[in-house]
Amino acid sequence: MFGAAVTERGEPDGKAGPRSLIRASAEGNRASDDRLFDLWLEQRLRAAFEDVSREPIPSELIALIESHRRKH
């Protein structure tokens, strides 16, 4: 009837009716919210584990990994 609500890039295609445009706008807001949450989560995880990631790997763990590699 009105055509697709948005183009492949997520932009209105100029053919959509008002309800389709509202729906496309809401979907775009959800995608934006998801990206913001992902960014927030990544920053929080980095802050929480930054110190741990800088610690040296224990020699016992390295030995365990190497022995496993030799078996396979």
Summarize the structure.
With 72 residues, this protein is mainly α. Helices cover 69% and strands 0% of the residues.
List the helices and strands and how they pair.
Layout: H1 18-54, H2 59-71
Task: List descriptors.
72 residues; mainly alpha; 2 helices; 69% helix; 0% strand
Largest sheet: none
Give the percentage of residues in beta strands. under 5%
Count of beta strands: 0
Order of helices and strands: HH
- Derived structural class: mainly alpha
Number of domains: 1
| Mean pLDDT level | 80
Tally of DSSP helical segments: 2
User: Which value, in Å, is the CA radius of gyration?
Assistant: 24 Å
User: Low-confidence spans: pLDDT under 50, at least 5 residues?
Assistant: none
Describe this structure in words.
With 72 residues, the chain is mainly α. The protein has one domain (18-71). The chain has helices spanning 18-54, 59-71. The protein is elongated, with a radius of gyration of 24 Å. The chain starts with 17 loop residues before the first helix and ends with a helix. The relative contact order is 0.08.
